[in-house]
Task: inverse folding
């Protein structure tokens, strides 16, 4: 009944179906890895909100190079954890990160190097402020940080991907991407390989700043893709089986239609006919 499956046409269809299903299963597994990775990030974000700040050395290895260099990136399992550090803000090298949106408004994030006692520096994202009147790229008036020693608590953020250009406009550094290795080239000291999203500081930060929100990753979207790809793989296998069964029933005359004619069983016409 199913002997036709051994024909070249059906064997080719089976091979294509199995290859397609295997690719879909692989894509589902890839999305499952993405789901797990994003779930881990969300768990670290939630844990970071509850944890007490740890010493800076728990998340970062100090930079070992000279001025203008960046140290090692923080370990993946330390990103979004809370740390504390004490130093002095270097306002002469404040970095304005333009094109940043908070509460549906476009403005600037303000990064100021916190110079530590050993001469290294940690970039601290002090928060978001709106642009000056005149457009989204109009440089804002940046509140001056406290003088003297400042203790900051915040969450570890890894450097952003991309090496956006860094310019000096009206005496201030400007960029669109917080690419720490690129920013380090403009600074007169070695810089840690990530930056800090400020939660609180002592003395207190200026109320003009809005805290930069930490958004959770959309891990459930990846989980939906897992289900989608695995379902497509099952449908491909099921579809092949359904078409093969229908063909077998049609060949056997079991699908409700007339059975195929067996010419060999018909009587041979007589010569007189």
Result:
């Amino acid at each position: 009944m199913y002997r036709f499956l051994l024909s070249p046409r059906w064997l080719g269809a089976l091979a294509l179906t199995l290859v397609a299903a295997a690719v879909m299963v692989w894509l589902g597994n890839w999305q499952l890895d993405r789901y797990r990775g994003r779930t881990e990030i969300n768990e670290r974000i939630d844990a970071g909100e509850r944890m007490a700040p740890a010493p800076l050395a728990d998340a970062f290895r100090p930079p070992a190079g000279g001025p203008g260099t960046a140290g090692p990136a923080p370990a993946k399992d330390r990103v979004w954890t809370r740390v504390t550090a004490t130093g002095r803000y270097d306002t002469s090298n404040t970095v304005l990160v333009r094109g940043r949106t908070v509460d549906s408004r476009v403005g600037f994030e303000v990064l100021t190097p916190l110079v530590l006692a050993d001469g290294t520096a940690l970039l601290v994202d002090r928060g978001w402020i709106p642009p000056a009147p005149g457009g989204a790229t109009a440089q804002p008036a940046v509140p001056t940080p406290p003088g003297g020693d400042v203790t900051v608590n915040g969450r570890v953020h890894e450097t952003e991907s991309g090496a956006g250009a860094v310019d000096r406009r009206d005496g201030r550094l400007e960029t669109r991407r917080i690419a720490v290795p690129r920013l380090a080239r403009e600074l007169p000291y070695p810089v840690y390989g990530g930056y800090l999203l400020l939660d609180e500081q002592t003395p207190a930060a200026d109320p003009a700043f809005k805290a930069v929100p930490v958004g959770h990753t959309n891990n459930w979207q990846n989980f939906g893709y897992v289900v989608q790809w695995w379902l497509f793989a099952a449908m491909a296998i099921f579809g092949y089986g359904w078409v093969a069964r229908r063909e077998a029933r049609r060949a056997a005359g079991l699908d409700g239609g007339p059975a195929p004619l067996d010419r060999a069983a018909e009587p041979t016409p007589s010569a007189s006919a």
In short: The longest strand covers residues 191-202. The CA atoms of residues 197 and 236 lie 48 Å apart.
